[in-house]
Amino acid sequence: MQADFSVELGRGDPALEIPWRSGDPAVRFYDLKKCPELVLQIPEAAAYPEMGAFLGRMNAPAFPLATAKCDVWENRDISPEEEIFGAERKLVSYVDLFFVDERLRGSLEKNEQLAKELCRLLHHAPEIAATVELVIRRCYYHQANAARDGDSGEEGFPARQNSGACSANIADYSSLQIEKESPELARAKRQSAGKDPSVANLETEASN
Known about the structure:
Helix content: 25-40%
Strand order of the largest sheet: 1-5-8-4-3
Order of helices and strands: EEHHEEHHEEHEEHHH
Number of helices: 8
Radius of gyration: 17 Å
Strand content: 25-35%
Structural class: alpha/beta
Largest sheet: 5 strands, mixed
């Protein structure tokens, strides 16, 4: 598995807003931390159970992260780095993650520590035809009162997880699509018992 991270905080780089809106009322931000049942309203979670499971785990009450956005699509654009997988197409997904703790949102250092730890864990995952890219970008957190006053809101640095799995047969990858952190996490989800060591590491990192 290939895993790496980058920081994109330039003037012209994309930025995230929470909550975000779109021109389509059906495509909008859902606060899954407060209302986990709203995951049923997300088409990607309905179409891909692995995405729904990942969103549920990231937005669990005691977990230090939350999700803002996600997408899944098929792509035949194979990069030179991905040619080693010998695939003709790939299934690509992304999830925008951010810290629940407001003190950590504005800390570039904490976001970089999170990205480095995730990359370290992924490098120890079983060898599968997959790539993961973590991108730290600027984010504006809008509060209700700030929106009324015309304020841009509080600033932070969410991490976007871009993941693409190269496979000649998408069905072969569907069972592995999101559960890339470690095999222990996948087993923990299936058994509904215990806490994965990698998750414990993230929660410890967030509390420091």
